[in-house]
Amino acid sequence: xxxxxxxxxxxxxxxxxxxxxxxxxxxxxxxxxxxxxxxxxxxxxxxxxxxxxxxxxxxxxxxxxxxxxxxxxxxxxxxxxxxxxxxxxxxxxxxxxxxxxxxxxxxxxxxxxxxxxxxxxxxxxxxxxxxxxxxxxxxxxxxxxxxxxxxxxxxxxxxxxxxxxxxxxxxxxxxxxxxxxxxxxxxxxxxxxxxxxxxxxxxxxxxxxxxxxxxxxxxxxxxxxxxxxxxxxxxxxxxxxxxxxxxxxxxxxxxxxxxxxxxxxxxxxxxxxxxxxxxxxxxxxxxxxxxxxxxxxxxxxxxxxxxxxxxxxxxxxxxxxxxxxxxxxxxxxxxxxxxxxxxxxxxxxxxxxxxxxxxxxxxxxxxxxxxxxxxxxxxxxxxxxxxxxxxxxxxxxxxxxxxxxxxxxxxxxxxxxxxxxxxxxxxxxxxxxxxxxxxxxxxxxxxxxxxxxxxxxxxxxxxxxxxxxxxxxxxxxxxxxxxxxxxxxxxxxxxxxxxxxxxxxxxxxxxxxxxxxxxxxxxxxxxxxxxxxxxxxxxxxxxxxxxxxxxxxxxxxxxxxxxxxxxxxxxxxxxxxxxxxxxxxxxxxxxxxxxxxxxxxxxxxxxxxxxxxxxxxxxxxxxxxxxxxx
Length: 630
Ligand code: OTU
Fold this sequence. Notes:
Blueprint: H1 4-12, H2 21-46, H3 52-69, H4 72-83, E1 95-98, H5 100-104, H6 107-111, H7 114-120, E2 124-127, E3 131-133, E4 144-150, H8 157-169, E5 173-178, E6 182-184, H9 188-194, H10 198-201, E7 206-207, H11 211-217, E8 232-235, E9 240-243, E10 250-252, H12 258-272, E11 278-281, H13 299-315, E12 320-323, H14 341-344, E13 350-352, H15 354-366, H16 370-377, E14 387-391, E15 398-399, H17 404-409, H18 416-426, E16 438-440, E17 450-452, H19 455-458, H20 467-486, E18 490-494, H21 527-531, H22 539-555, E19 566-568, E20 575-580, E21 584-589, E22 595-605, E23 611-618, E24 623-628
Parallel strand pairs: 1-2, 1-18, 2-5, 5-11, 11-12, 12-13, 13-14, 14-18
Antiparallel strand pairs: 3-4, 6-10, 7-9, 8-9, 15-17, 16-17, 19-20, 20-21, 21-24, 22-23, 22-24
């Protein structure tokens, strides 16, 4: 075992030449706080290897070098955030997610959108993958060919540094995907492996025949069962079957190999030193494979993340890690670590509450809040300085199978798969549904996988035949956004939703996108809608101004901060009555009928000031934010 005194010098060595003694003291302080978890987790994963001590010392040296290289402005931000670890829990935090090209054309173009983001009150901008992607099909940039180069179509490395600095100066934290589960089959590591480099071949999981793949397939699910069935791809140049959880050109990395972890941890720190402040850890549930399991949420995956968190706490403590784990509700809290379980280690700062998102859509389809109430009941309090991420839509499908447990338990119960399949069919527009959407990766109408479509299109704006239907669609849209804003999380708007943008069907004409209906919800920012965002006679204006009114109210309500208490109050089946502390209630009527909701005391509408006491009658699809009357 490497004990503490031996390994600290390895971390400090690169700082020796550093002019500021303070940085050496800072590094020592941080390492003292993180060493136990960092060493314990990495020794548990890799300590059986005779070269562990040498490997661990080299890793620490690399971390020390990257800390020494960290720009002064980021070091200062680190210090401020170490003093205020809950800086991102404030109710004024608001996220916005978009593709670079769809928001601004290029990274430079995104900089010109900063005033618009400031108008919305955005303080966190998630730009979808912008590093050099695989040539040709690349899963929307989620097949990365180089972590150290910006996609030439979007600009050059200097543009990223410039944009990050401009965003930081505007008080907006840049969030980037960190696609750590896999790399593109034209990444240098994959190319080296194909060329016969054994060390690089060990970066991947390769099997000479179908024996092991078939044994794994017996218990592993499928992410793209239609367009990329199975989890293994035969690669002639590799002389066998490569693990490919996603598309065949996305090669899973082998985290049982410590070189992979060391390389990826340093990659993250290099990107952090470019000014990226939040890392969306893509597909993080898949990092560790174990035969006989679904190869998701394994204990070792959490150990890897806890080690990564400790490394970030040493070398870039102003950075946040965000878990993208689309997994059952019961599996989610572990990604945020905890004081008790997981050996008391912090893990990610933020995690997508994908169950809350899917349950809100389920409640809308069922006109009943049971699924939502079941998910909220299963949502535990979080460790300090940790937060959910709430959202209505994103660039991906709505994954229904995260709700299997709730679909079985929440009234009316019954077969969960059939219930989720009914919801998924609703969003394809089946029967008299108002939705305009598409099923994802499932041709079996009795099985649910995912649903695609833009928020406004799934909620009826696209099929609306008159003003009554248009207004109903917008009420549904504001209801889902109002819930995401009131739940107690870091809410993230998905680009275009603030303008009620609808499906973009053009993907069907693009051969490399035609088989992936997720492109329905990946439009370019609609400049005409943008011009009408203050025009109440347009859907864009009604949505934008409705959203801004909620955002303005939210900013003045500490009860809506991520960590404030959350209680579900008694309500009719189709109503969610969510109290935040004692003085705020969010009421959501998921039904097309008026619903009575009892009130204890005197309350006023946060937006209009209208007073209510005893009972309020909620209009169809109404959202009502109430604060206790003074
Ligand atoms: C994530 O996918 C990304 O968000 C997707 O855009 C990528 O295609 C994928 O990884 C591969 O990088 O939960 O944890 O249902 O929505 O797999 C992985 C399909 C994810 C994706 C889902 C998602």
